[in-house]
Amino acid sequence: MSRVSLHLNDGVRPREVWAWASYDFANSGYTTVVITAIFNAYFVSVVAGRAAWATFAWTLVLSVSYALIVVTAPLIGAWADTHAAKKKVLVVSTLGCVLGTAALSFAGPGDIAIAVIALVISNFFFGTGENVIAAFLPELGKSESLGKISGWGWAFGYIGGLVSLGACLAYVTWAQGRGDAAEQFVPVTMLITSGLFVLASLPTFLLLKERAVPQMRASGAGYEGAFARLQSTVRHAARFRDLAWFLVCILLYQAGVQTVISIAAIYAQEAMGFGTTQTLVMVLVVNVTASVGAFAFGYLQDRLGHVKSVALTLVGWCVTTLVAWQARDASVFWVAANLAGLCMGASQSAGRALVGYLSPEARRAEFFGLWGLAVKLSSILGPLTYGAISWMSGGDHRQAMLFTGAFFVAGLTVLTAVNVERGRRAALAADRG
To answer: Is there a contact between 172 and 189 (Cβ–Cβ < 8 Å)?
Structure first.
């Protein structure tokens, strides 16, 4: 038996874990290129023409897409559980994100409507797929190894972001060398990203198995059955109070994480004066540190414990925002950027693993829908707050960055209410019942 197999549930082969992680590899190109590195800055500088409201508009559009996910995620998760149809939902969400990303290539100077519609569609389907692929995690690994396996996925995911961004950087460098402007080379990077998403996700659809069993008789059929299951979860929330507290913690600290993800290139260019190439190189390097953080921290989490591990990452995030806030030259900002990479990989991997550990087996997709709901609410709260502060302060991105640190402090405070052992007992008791 291989060392990897020791961490897996009975009947799970290592190649399935690789196929599962391949989806993290595939979809990370979208967040890295569209949300973090290229299209966000392009939207502010070219599509919106650097208007005073441009950053706020960017965060507002993202918030609309996240609001749609907030409304639909628990119901989609419950429906997927009821019908044992996670892979079917994943196929639809992947196609939606790929087509929406390709449609972004039509957005040029002043094409606000095209950019808004394509961004809402692509980000909605990205978030839906992110929730569903996470629900496979507890089916693959043993409960004591979820941190490792989640870390493998996140680490491989950041490598995927690195590959997509590297391909885009190579094209951008070539295009700039022949004198092309942003409105000429950025649309091509959207097509590169969507194409790589399709290719890299193929192992997931070919090799990953759907192990869930349809629960039609127990839960009812169709949308009504899914909604009934969600209502049941809410009514019995007291049984899963540690999971509920952790979801609140995720809502708070992910507000900070999602802010950093969605405004990284904007902050680099508007506050630090970075150019396009310099910004892309920075994000490339940050993806490497994020991959290292996710992989290494997965092992540390299983040894150190879930709560201590998450607390450690939140302290790191507090330090990161302070360094970024006071940075006045590129070298100091590079330190903040790489700290953010380490913390990003670690905190996202740790959060996903702990949700899986606290979730009853029969409601995994549904509870990961609640996880997605918390993350998407944070994706509204954090970036929209940042955009509003930068707009009201006349474009003071440093002030907005400092306020972002408050989300990590709040998350660290709520984390003290989570008792992992009690929460795990509640999940096991629910399965027995």
So the answer is: yes
